[in-house]
Amino acid sequence: MNILLAGLSFVNLIGRVPGGVSQGLIWGIMALGVFITFRVLDIADLSVDGSFATGGAVAVMLSLAGLPTWVATICALLAGIIAGIITGLLHAKLGIPAILAGILTQFALYSINLRIMNMAANQSINPAMYKLVISMRNIPVAIIEGVIFAAIIIALLYWYFGTEQGSALRATGNNGAMSTALGINTSNMKIIGLAISNGVVAFAGGLMAQYQGFSDVNMGRGAIVIGLAAIIIGEILCDAIFKKGCSFWIRMAFVVLGGIIYYLVMIIVLWLKLDPNDLKLFTALIVTIFLAVPYFRGKAKNSFSWAGKRSLPYVATIKNSLKSGKEVQ
User: Fold this and answer.
1) 61 vs 72: CA distance, rounded Å
2) Which of 261, 260, 263, 242 has its CA nearest to residue 251?
3) How far is CA 255 from CA 158, 168, 228, 232, 263, in A?
4) What is the model's pLDDT at position 28?
5) Which of 88, 150, 234, 319 could form a disulfide with 194 if both were Cys (CB 3.0 to 4.6 A apart)?
6) DSSP letters along 6-33, please?
């Protein structure tokens, strides 16, 4: 163990934590978008890998063109909404399976993102020349801003899903057949849900591009996996702390917390001086572990429940035997 830790500085690790928290908050916001499709709509939407990069590209290029960065960030959100609508139309109106519709949109967005960035793989933006919404040059302020953005998005989503349309959207994901029987246009609900989801993801992409000082055509690669990791980590923690169940807004808050924890784990991996090329392998392992935890937990509960039911007749026999004074066979 001492050999493994040789040459590692805990002071260096602690120094990396604030930066990890600030980036984790942005990834947590992105995970909220994934949460809408994955948990609310029960759809695996892979277009988020493309819309995250779209948000970054739009935010940077419009800022470079002279628009205020906060306006450019809102435009990034709108671009994500359009991408989500396209995925929704492919799925709901053309009958293409959701996972394939997401792949098609993601595939098309690669070329679109390149065109947005003037056919360059990446575009940088100088924080010294532009008043960015969020920047890694001031980590404490970035953390505060990340918390504020996450809180606003959670509040807006909590309000929206409490409205009539939001409730219809949740019903669509919970039981599509029953929702259709109740007169809900499930096709439109799916389009709306995918639009909101990708809008939030693109907004996070716009924040990330400003935070790191550049947009990249590949910056969204693996976003869906990171989003799923944040969701699963957050839900496991939420269920562990709130034994009687989490309310909807608390669950969303824990999704953001899951994004922070995920990124802190990545920082620890890098601090251990492991090969950065193995980061995606470690990401896959982390997601696999956290995805398996609920399954094995449920299996254990069912096993104990089954064993308890099997033992009830025998326990009753023992009690009756003790009362009658007979020996148990």
Assistant:
1) 8
2) 242
3) 14, 22, 9, 8, 13
4) 94
5) 88
6) TT--HHHHHHHHHHHHHHHHHHHHHHHH
Band (pLDDT 50/70/90 cuts) for residue 47 is very high
Burial of 301 (0-12, 13-18, 19+ CB in 10 A): exposed
Cβ(37)–Cβ(43) under 8 Å? yes
Residue 141 sits in the same domain as residue 260: yes
Dig out the tokens for 54 from the structure: 């779209």
Same domain, 174 and 299: no
Is 179 in a helix, a strand, or coil? helix
Kindly tell me if the per-residue pLDDT of 53 is higher than 50: yes
User: Are the beta carbons of 34 and 48 closer than 8 angstroms?
Assistant: yes
Distance CA 294, CA 244 (A): 16
Segment among 35-49, 57-71, 261-275 with least mean pLDDT: 261-275
Residues 200 and 314 in one domain: no
Other Cβ atoms within 10 Å of 175 Cβ, number: 13
Residue 9, classified by CB atoms within 10 Å of its CB into exposed (0-12), middle (13-18) or buried (19+), is: exposed
> What residues make up the domain containing 317?
277-329
Same domain, 105 and 59: yes
Q: Are 143 and 83 contained in the same domain?
A: yes
Per-residue pLDDT reduced to its tens digit, 141-171:
999 999 999 999 999 999 999 999 999 999 9
